[in-house]
Model the fold of this input.
Amino acid sequence: MMNFNASAPVLEVTKLKKHFPVLRGMLRREVARVQAVDGVSFSIAPGETLCLVGESGSGKSTVGKLILRLIQPTGGTIRLDGIDVTKLGEGALRQHRRRVQMVFQDPYSSLNPKLTAGTIVAEPIENFESLSADEREVRVLGMLRKVGLRPDAIRRYPFEFSGGQRQRLAIARALAGNPSLMVADEPVSALDVSVQAQVLNLLMDLKEELKLAYLFISHDLGVVEHIGDRIAVMYLGRIVEIARKETIFDEPLHPYSEALITAAPVPNPRFKRARLLIEGDVPSPMNPPSGCRFHTRCPFVGPRCRSEDPQLREVTPGHFVACHLREAGYRGRLPRPG
Ligand code: SF4
Done:
């Protein structure tokens, strides 16, 4: 178990798996399994933002859905505030969904267009607290103010807001349930660049004020560098590297992390490495490569990589990497192939 912070974690995920069966024929027989998430472990401390990054198909959004229990895990445990939520019944699941809230990429499709902003934000309050109408309105106005929306927003409908305002409204709704953890899945990628920074700053301010923990899912390393405390890099259903943000950006040890970071247009004067090129697409999670799952694209692949699965190991305190080349503690730059 990886706990990077002295305080008890808000979230502890251990060996989490989600395999989707592929069914064929009249009898709907299982012919294969898509290993969307395959043995992922991490923890998040109070007030911490852990960013999950990786290409599409890496399994990062599936991890978010599993934590919300929108889908049932195939294996592993998810502990929220010390309680294993993987086997909760319907009643307890409602409480769980209050303590973990999600902010989606597209706020418009996640907000009911027929409801006013006031009703949308009041819903989670009504579900879990018995307040008078006046008390509820005061609470809703407080939430709207917290996310930077004016009081008159309470009577407006989602289509009357701009994209950035709609995402603020979605955040207000998420906060209304008083969550311990927010899962934000690409929450700014559908917004204009100028608005992205405002919403990111809002999320950071709220984290500071409310000591919220975030699981922030993104493919955009510029966004991650802005908001993250730690970064977990996912590839084909596994975490291949996890460390503090500065460590990953300054000294990525897994070739896949290095390829992502050197390809990203993130201004980083400390990082002077030449781009590490990887070729090809992410292989199918239905039939992942043997040994190291990255071996079909890795410029440093060796014979051992094709047969032996590298385990995630701690190479320096808090810095974990799954690569045979790093097992002996070698931290230097890998010689470029050719
Ligand atoms: Fe590349 Fe081998 Fe390391 Fe996998 S284990 S990342 S294939 S060097």
Observations:
- Residues 5 and 45 are 6 Å apart (CA to CA).
- The two ends are 38 Å apart (CA to CA).
- The pocket of iron/sulfur cluster is lined by residues 254-255, 292, 294-295, 298, 300-302, 305, 310, 323-325 (CB under 6 Å).
